[in-house]
Amino acid sequence: MGRSVLELWLLWSVVMRVMIALPIAYSASSTSSQEALLVSRIAFGSCANQSAPQPIWNAIIDFDPQIFIWLGDNIYGDVRHPFKLFGKERTIGPWKNVPRFIPSSEQEMQSRYKKTKTNPGYSRLLEKTKVIGTWDDHDYGLNDAGKEFNGKITSQRLLLDFLDEPQDSPRRKQAGVYTSYTFGPVGRQIKVILLDTRYHRDPLFSDGSILGSSQWTWLESELKGPASALTIIGSSIQVISNLSAITGPIFYLECWGRFPKERERLFKLIADSKRDGVFFISGDVHFGEITRYDCATGYPLFDITASGITQAVEKAVPPPLNFIVRFVAWLAPTTMRVMGQHCRHKSCTYGDWTFSRPAKFWSN
User: Fold this and answer.
1) CB of 8 closer than 8 Å to CB of 25
2) Rg (CA), the chain
3) Per-residue pLDDT tens for 81-134?
4) At what angle do helices 120-128 and 56-63 cross, to 10 degrees?
5) For the chain, which domains are there?
6) Residues 268, 190: Cα–Cα separation, whole Å
């Protein structure tokens, strides 16, 4: 069932550039004395600069999701210095003497979360939608940071406060923000697994661990647990894309592909669990994309990337140059990217803002 559901979705939907709306019939978890209610849609997105305009919330509210999933960079909590090759403080080049990114204070992080939470559009979403999520580097506290970041305990508390996580939640007591949810009635249950790709991650280029031993043990238990019609694995960084193999050594994107042993372990765990209907959702890269991998399980694995709510690659260049970004996206020979007639420029990758109309997974 999982495979046909994914294929149906791909036939009918268009990738979101700012936020991908993934329509599925789902229901919120309820107490044992209540029947789970079947509803219609989950939406997800990432990369929301709290200081930038966020008009997309109006479109998200019109879409009327029952669940919204943050996939990281929910705020930009670190401080970014401008590119400077010369001068007293140099952030790039062979004479670099100061870091380009530095952490904010706890008070500044709180202020930035408050700015997002009190955004009129997001506030209206909170009134009617269950919001869950994980983090990426900028809300973790520092660009590209991993387990070495000293502020991660404070950052974890601030993120969970932002998400209104109950004070007695196990998530507040563990090392990392990974968690899972199960929605819907038996036979149409949807399991959402949210990974933490920061708290335990080894340095880049190390080919070490992304999840750390405790999170790997937890994930194995989650995947080998009770079956569900669909299993959505949320990762703040892309799982399947191999784009860095194309762009390096000019620049590298953070992704599971930079930790090949970890990615192979993840694929093997999914295959060994014999769990049907698994696919990934991700953020981070400031464009939307659908990628596919056929060699991990008995069915294709898809990674649907939604990035970003305010950050978009086509917005990073003057409008007359947008066509260059689109051409490069179309031309980039990433073998993992889904190509199809429903995708603009033939390639399922987008660098601007939009979202799609839904196609329902369940017939009734």
Assistant:
1) no
2) 20
3) 888 888 888 888 888 888 999 999 999 999 999 999 999 999 999 999 999 999
4) 20
5) 2-350 (3.60.21.70)
6) 21
